[in-house]
Amino acid sequence: MSPSLDELRKFVAPEVLFGEDARALCGAYAERIGMRRVLVVTDPGVIAAGWVSPVIDDLASHGIETMVFSDISPNPRSAQVSAGAAVFSAERCSAIVAVGGGSPMDCAKGIGVVASNGGHVLDYAGVDRVAVPMPPFICVPTTAGTGADVSQFAIITDEQNHAKAGLISKSLVPDLALVDPIMLTTMDPELTAATGTDALVHAVEAYISNGAWEMTDDLALAAMRIIPRALPACCSNSEDRESQRAMALASLNAGLAFSNASLGAVHALAHALGGQLDAAHGECNALLLGPVMRRNLKHVAPERAALMADALGIEGSDLANRIPAWFDAFALELGIEAHNRGAGITEAEFERIARTASMDACMATNPWRPDVADLVEMLHDALD
Ligand SMILES: [Fe+2]
């Protein structure tokens, strides 16, 4: 008798090395997994912060040649993936090391997919469409929140359609994540707030996802216990090592949770909105979290909402209103405000964003299925 597919759950994770100075082991691990000629994928900000040269030197000391590709913007575009894949092939690279935040890591995943499978990165948008595994791939994250260092996801901007395309495949999970909290010391408070809120949204959406199960619940709740205290502390003091370590761990927990339980309407809308506004992913998430959860919590079992509130440190009754209000207040505490951004968006554009979001792969695991009108309402609540 074959098992019911509805009853089965799976869990995919890379090897993770966690702790201060983990980055210094990149060369040793790269040698161990057979890397010889590496494309280092990064961006100009990470190079300026001084994180790339030591990694290159370390790889060289283990006999590994490197080429650097850094022509990557926030919200990496498909053309940047194509350019990186062309360098990978012209330089006869055989492995990838990403050093940076979500943009370089996602772009590196796209480069790896094209290097192994050919064609254009957007050919692989969707779920389980990457047939051939990526080349050997190490991530060294410089932010805490994106989860790209452990996840099956990559988000690439489709610049023709002003939208973001999601690639979701086991092939995108790195071979190794070197999670080093020291790398968080060069983030400014705005980047810390935006990326840290992304981690919070990963935990929340993974927890209420239709794909959630015991393993992802524990990881999501663990992240929710950490972030309310550690994230404001990281934003106000870039030398707070204890809080930085806590946020690196929260990002890891939330990343593993969402990679395996998937996400929901906050991310679906944030992808569509980010494509339209070219705004930071974490910022879009922060603005949308309260308004979307005001609707989503009506479809979450009260005992599960209570566990979530407990993890976040929210007390009292009427959790269906109290939890979204807490999310709104938390975004404000972190300095993330809409500033009437909806004013520049026409009603037709609101509808187009909502329609794009309704087709996003993340919508499949939202606890209920909002229609376009529901999504337009959420966008107005978030942006007006
Ligand atoms: Fe995210």
At a glance:
This protein is α/β, with parallel strands linked by helices and 384 residues long. It has helices spanning 26-32, 44-48, 52-61, 78-90, 102-117, 189-208, 214-236, 241-261, 265-277, 281-296, 302-312, 319-333, 347-358, 372-383; strands spanning 15-18, 37-41, 65-69, 95-100, 126-127, 137-141, 153-158, 163-168, 176-179. The protein is globular, with a radius of gyration of 20 Å.
Q: How would you portray this structure in words?
A:
- Strand 7 and strand 8 form a beta hairpin.
- With 384 residues, the protein is of the alpha/beta class.
- It is globular and about 60 Å long.
- The chain is built from 14 helices and 9 strands.
- It has 2 domains: 179 residues, Rossmann fold (3-Layer(aba) Sandwich), CATH 3.40.50; 197 residues, Up-down Bundle (Dehydroquinate synthase-like, alpha domain).
- 51% of the residues lie in helices and 11% in strands.
- The strands form 2 sheets. It has a 6-stranded parallel β-sheet with strand order 1-9-6-4-2-3, with helices on both faces. Strands 5-8-7 form a 3-stranded mixed β-sheet.
- The mean pLDDT is 95.
- The site of fe (ii) ion (FE2) has 4 residues, from helix 6.
Keywords:
single chain; 384 residues; alpha/beta; Rossmann fold; Dehydroquinate synthase-like, alpha domain; 2 domains; six-stranded parallel β-sheet; three-stranded mixed β-sheet; 14 helices; 9 strands; 51% helix; globular; binds fe (ii) ion
